[in-house]
Amino acid sequence: MLPDEGAAAVDAQLTNVTRITRGRGGAALLNTTSSIFVPMTPEVTNIQAFEVWYRADADPPNNGRSGLVDSNVSPPNISLFLLRQDPGHQLRCGLGAAVASWNASLTVGSWTYLACVCEANSLKMYVDGVKIGETPGPCASGGGFVGDGFTIGSNNNGGPSGFDDWLVGAIDGVRLWNVPLTSTMICQTAGNPSC
User: Fold this and answer.
1) Tens of pLDDT along 130-188?
2) If phi over 0 gives left and psi between -120 and 50 gives alpha, with beta otherwise, what is residue 3?
3) Checking DSSP bridges between strand 18-22 and strand 150-152, what pairing results, if any?
4) If you write DSSP's letter for every residue of 141-165 in order, what string do you get?
5) Do residues 178 and 142 make contact, with C-beta atoms less than 8 angstroms apart?
6) H or E segment at 69?
7) What is the model's pTM?
8) What domains can you pick out in the chain, each with its CATH number?
């Protein structure tokens, strides 16, 4: 645990999820029949940043998307999607009452570290430790788990069974923060010596 890291008492419901080895730990291998669902809890509020490691093993269909995390309610939204719009990709982050999209170059089959941060009422998106965009928006109130709960690796359409836009690949290290992450911390977590 990091010196300022805490924990909330939440339990995830896993369906058709396989544990795979990654580094010194493990990751969740997902497909279009998988779901990771965390029920609503009032413990998770005022989220100012979140981070995730993921590996896409298949590209979403053209003009489609893969859900990495999603709370389904805005505000207090917490969401991150990989959108495919040929010839490229975009990352769409939602936090609090703000949603923004940025162009991104992502490679199928490679592990990628993503962080979305609300700082000074602006959303900032990082890929492998490098900031790819910043957009002003009403994110200061932060995100939370409400109503429909929280999904990992899919879009949340409502409750523990309303999923689509699955990530076909693997996901690891989903962490939510009630403080903004600094660029130094993001760079260190990404393991990127050039940032």
Assistant:
1) 999 999 989 988 898 877 889 999 998 876 677 889 999 999 999 999 999 999 999 99
2) alpha
3) unpaired
4) T-B---TT-EEESSEEEEGGGEEES
5) yes
6) strand 65-70
7) 0.92
8) 13-189 (2.60.120.200)
